[in-house]
Specification:
Blueprint (H helix, E strand, L loop, with lengths): L5 H25 L3 H20 L6 H10 L1 H24 L4 H29 L2 H15 L11 H21 L7 H20 L1 H4 L1 H34 L5 H32 L8
Length: 288
C-alpha cells in the first residue's frame, strides 16, 4: 500500500478549500445570498488557516505570501457576513420586545440594514475587479503546484503531530494567560485559536482518523460558544454607538440589555466547553 506523504495531505486540504471557494464564487455571481457569502468566507478562512497549519510542510515564504494575498478578499467577505449576523440577531431580539417598542425598532435597525447593504455592494464590486480574478487564478495555481519544504516527502503520519501540537499549544497558552474572569477581548482571542485548531484537526483527518474528527467536534462546540459571546458583545457595542445618535435610544437600550444577557450566558458556558476539549486531547492524531 502506498504511503500518504505530508505533501499529499497538504495538497488535498488546499484543493478542498479552493474547490469550496470556486463553488461559492459561482453562487455569488448567480445570487449574492447570505449563504453564498458565508460559504465563500469559510472557504477563504479555511484556506488561510491551512496555509498556516502546514507551514512546516510548505515553503514558508510562499505560503505566507499567499495567505497575505487572501486578506483583501477575507476582509470584504467578513464585513458582509458580520453585517448579516448582527442584523439577524437584532431582528430576533426585536421580536421579543413589546408591540410598541417592536414597531419603533425599525428606526434602530435601519442603520444596520444600510450597513449590510453597503457591505454587499462592496462584495459585488470586488467580484468584478481584475484583482479578484487574478486571486482565483493564483489559488488554483497554488493547488496545482504548491511549493513544498523537504519534509513534504515524509510520511504524513510522522508530520501530523507537529502540525497539531503547534495549533494546540497556542490555544492552551492563550487560555492559560487569560485573566479571571476572562475579559471579552481574551475570549475573542481564544475563539480565534480554537478555530485554527479545529480546522487543523479536520484537515489532517484523512490521515489521523476518527479521533481527530471527534476532537474537532469538541473544539467546534467551544468555538460556537465563544462565537455567540463575541457576536453578543459586538451587538452591545454597536447598539451603544447607535443609541447616542438614534431616534429610539430606549429601544436600542432594551436590545443591548438582551444581548448583554446572551453574552453573560455564553461567558458562563465557555469553561465547560474548554474542559471537554482538554479531556479529548489524548493523542487524537493516532488513527483508529
Amino acid at each position: 500500500m502506498e504511503t500518504t506523504t505530508a505533501g499529499d495531505l497538504v495538497r488535498a486540504a488546499l484543493a478542498a478549500s479552493v474547490e469550496r471557494l470556486l463553488a461559492a464564487d459561482t453562487q455569488l455571481r448567480l445570487d449574492a445570498s447570505p449563504e453564498a457569502v458565508h460559504e465563500a468566507r469559510v472557504a477563504v478562512r479555511r484556506l488561510r488557516s491551512d496555509l498556516r497549519t502546514f507551514f512546516v510542510v510548505l515553503d514558508r515564504r510562499w505560503a505566507f505570501a499567499l495567505r497575505e494575498s487572501l486578506v483583501w478578499l477575507a476582509d470584504g467577505l467578513s464585513a458582509a457576513r458580520d453585517a448579516d449576523v448582527l442584523l439577524a440577531r437584532l431582528e430576533r431580539q426585536a421580536e421579543m420586545l413589546p408591540a410598541a417598542d417592536r414597531q419603533a425598532s425599525g428606526a434602530v435597525l435601519r442603520p444596520f440594514r444600510d450597513k449590510r447593504e453597503a457591505a454587499y455592494g462592496r462584495v459585488c464590486a470586488m467580484l468584478g475587479e481584475e484583482r479578484y480574478v487574478e486571486l482565483l487564478r493564483e489559488t488554483v495555481a497554488a493547488v496545482k503546484s504548491p511549493v513544498f519544504a523537504p519534509c513534504a516527502a515524509d510520511p504524513a503520519v510522522d508530520v501530523v503531530p507537529t502540525m497539531l501540537e503547534d495549533a494546540w499549544s497556542k490555544l492552551r497558552r492563550t487560555v492559560r494567560s487569560r485573566t479571571r474572569p476572562a475579559a471579552d477581548r481574551e475570549l475573542h482571542r481564544i475563539r480565534i485559536k480554537a478555530k485554527r485548531l479545529r480546522y487543523a484537526a479536520e484537515a489532517v483527518a484523512p490521515v489521523a482518523g476518527k479521533r481527530a474528527l471527534r476532537f474537532a467536534k469538541r473544539v467546534a462546540r467551544l468555538q460556537a460558544v465563544l462565537g455567540e459571546h463575541h457576536d453578543a458583545v459586538n451587538a452591545v457595542r454597536q447598539l451603544g454607538e447607535q443609541s447616542s445618535r438614534g431616534d429610539a435610544p430606549f429601544v436600542a437600550g432594551q436590545l443591548a440589555a438582551l444581548e448583554r444577557l446572551a453574552a453573560c450566558a455564553a461567558h458562563a458556558r465557555w469553561r465547560a466547553a474548554w474542559r471537554a476539549v482538554r479531556e479529548r486531547r489524548r493523542h487524537f492524531w493516532r488513527a483508529d
